[in-house]
Amino acid sequence: MRGGAAGAGRPAGPGAGTQAAAGGGDQVSQQEVVFESVSKFYGEVLGVNRVSLRIPPGLTSLVGPNGSGKTTLMNLMMGLIHPDRGSVSVRGLSPKDPEKLMRICGYATQYDAAPRWASGFQFVTTGLELYGYSKAESEHKAWEALKRVSLTEAAHRKVAAYSKGMRQRVRLAQAIAHEPEVLVLDEPLNGLDPLVRAETIALFRDYAAMGRHVILSSHVLQEVDVISDQVVLIANGSILAEGEIRGVREEIHEHPSQFIIRCRDASKIASLLFNEEHVTEIKLNEDKLGLLVLTRNREEFARALSRIALSGHDVTSVIPADENVDALYEYLIGGGR
Ligand SMILES: Nc1ncnc2c1ncn2[C@@H]1O[C@H](COP(=O)(O)OP(=O)(O)OP(=O)(O)O)[C@@H](O)[C@H]1O
Fold first, then answer.
1. Whose CA is nearest to atom 6 of ligand 1?
2. Which keywords does this Swiss-Prot/TrEMBL entry list (predicted)?
3. Do residues 132 and 178 make contact, with C-beta atoms less than 8 angstroms apart?
4. Which of 7, 11, 156, 275 is 20 to 30 A distant from 199 in Cα terms?
5. Are both 239 and 302 inside the same structural domain?
6. How many structural domains comprise the chain?
């Protein structure tokens, strides 16, 4: 199902079973968010490409650089956009049925959407009234939600006077106010100070512990790795790796590096490198003067090649074949640097 992000192949990894399995049982999908071979284009621009994913209840983080497709996946789940190909279902519901979907979903976009003229309390209450709750019910639920995000003191102040972190929290309050089973939050930890961040994460964990879905996005794996039950790494509209963090980290660490070797006798060097345990694949050039080597261990590869050169084989040059892929993995694992 790969879309070939930056040309990366995906090694088989342990994962948490979030990868879509063909013909998954209907009973299971009633409890999951399912993408089946979903593609979405914005005109010529790729949003996501052939994404297949099963997200079980719990806390799942979508992680990837700017423009990788995180918001597109969230908007597809919430029925704000529809796939060009494939299908999406959210706990058995189609996103094309917004009335039912909105009853079980809460969505906080990354945009600072709360109207400045309203107080935090009015903003959350109005949202609930639109869901059909009575005024009294709406006010009660709004107050409870504002309590959950520690905004009761500022509840009657205008949103215009809120800090960035407070505006982030009032949107979270609006998303949780009707106690949805599926909470989708686009970059919800942006702009929060450490104390509020810790409280917010505790709220997510409480939600997840109740068997609900909490699906959030982040640019930075390190921001969400320890808090997530599963992570989904996205680049260029395709899933790079997904599952429990340990398995995903292993996949990243073990992703093969590619090198092009130019040399006099490529067949001989290929046969010597083939004995190395870290070498996963070798392709010989037709001219027999070059080869492409995939290795899981750059240091071992460098040592092996030095040994080969020192034993009299002529190696003209060695160049990394795909620095973009390496840089992407380094970005993901290195905290978005
Ligand atoms: N409305 C749109 N019109 C045209 N292209 C779009 C639109 N929305 C998204 N895209 C493109 O689709 C791709 C995926 O974008 P998306 O917003 O899903 O990524 P993202 O991972 O959420 O990025 P960020 O971290 O910056 O929010 C990008 O190339 C983006 O430019």
1. 42
2. ATP-binding, Nucleotide-binding, Transport
3. no
4. 156
5. no
6. 2
Residue 222 sits in the same domain as residue 300: no
Q: What is the pLDDT of residues 132-164, one digit of tens each?
A: 899 999 999 999 999 999 999 999 999 999 998
**Closest atom of ligand 1 relative to the 69 alpha carbon:** 18
Q: Do 148 and 53 have their domain in common? A: yes
**Is residue 171 domain-shared with residue 288, that is, in the same domain?**
no
Range of the domain at 318: 256-333
Q: Which helix (H) or strand (E) holds 88?
A: strand 85-90
pLDDT at 299: 84
Q: What is the pLDDT of residue 6?
A: 31
Nearest CA to ligand 1 atom 31: 67
The count of other CB atoms within 10 Å of the CB of residue 77 is: 24
| Domain finish residue from 204, 221, 252 | 252
Instruction: Indicate the SS3 state at residue 223.
Output: helix
The sheet carrying 257-263 orders its strands as 279-284, 290-295, 257-263, 315-320
Q: Which residues lie with the beta carbon below 6 Å from any ligand 1 atom?
A: 42, 45, 47, 64, 66-72, 219
Ligand 1 geometric centre to CA of 219 (Å): 13
Query: What per-residue confidence (pLDDT) applies to 21?
Result: 42
CATH of the domain at 205: 3.40.50.300
The verdict on 246 and 264 lying in the same domain is: no
Pair (210, 311) in one structural domain: no
- The token pair at 179 is 């106690």
Residue 230 CA to residue 248 CA, distance in Å, equals: 9
The parts of the chain modelled with pLDDT lower than 50 are 1-24, 335-337
